[in-house]
Amino acid sequence: MLILELSPEHEKAIAEHGERAYPNECCGFLLGRDDGTVRHTLALREAGNESDANEQYHRFSISPEDFMAADRDARQRKMDVVGFYHSHPNAPARPSPVDQEHAWPVYSYVIVSVHEREARERTSWVLRDDRSGYDEQTIRRS
């Protein structure tokens, strides 16, 4: 499995986005490139949480328009959408059953746990091809 590379600036930006969105979930895109062994995150792109307002505290949804705009932005910059990030307010940085239901194999899924407006644990996951569960992905600082 590819190692996910994140810079300290990207880690900080994801944490700050989660803290701003609290008590709701934040979400966004990881843009970058794979080299066969490492998935290099070169840019982030915030997305709006399109879930119903009364559901945003425990789920996120990204609109097709946001996805298409992120994909277009990545391609213009000679990158790809390599994954997504989102926060778990007052919950562990582990994929939920809802996350698994809506995820796609291949992509990296970074989750940041935010407790009382403070970002804490950060993990990354890749959904197995058979959708039976996730494998935790090693995160390396760039």
The gist of it:
It contains three helices and eight strands; from the N terminus they run E-H-E-E-H-E-H-E-E-E-E.
Summarize the helices and strands and which ones pair or pack:
Elements: E1 3-6, H1 8-21, E2 27-34, E3 38-47, H2 64-76, E4 80-89, H3 97-102, E5 108-115, E6 118-127, E7 134-137, E8 139-141
Parallel strand pairs: 1-3, 1-8, 4-5
Antiparallel strand pairs: 2-3, 2-4, 5-6, 6-7
Summarize the structure in words.
The protein has a single domain (3-141), classed as Cytidine Deaminase, domain 2 (3-Layer(aba) Sandwich). It is 23% helix and 40% strand. It has helices spanning 8-21, 64-76, 97-102; strands at 3-6, 27-34, 38-47, 80-89, 108-115, 118-127, 134-137, 139-141. It has an eight-stranded mixed beta sheet with strand order 7-6-5-4-2-3-1-8. The chain is globular and about 40 Å long. The two termini are 18 Å apart. The relative contact order is 0.24.
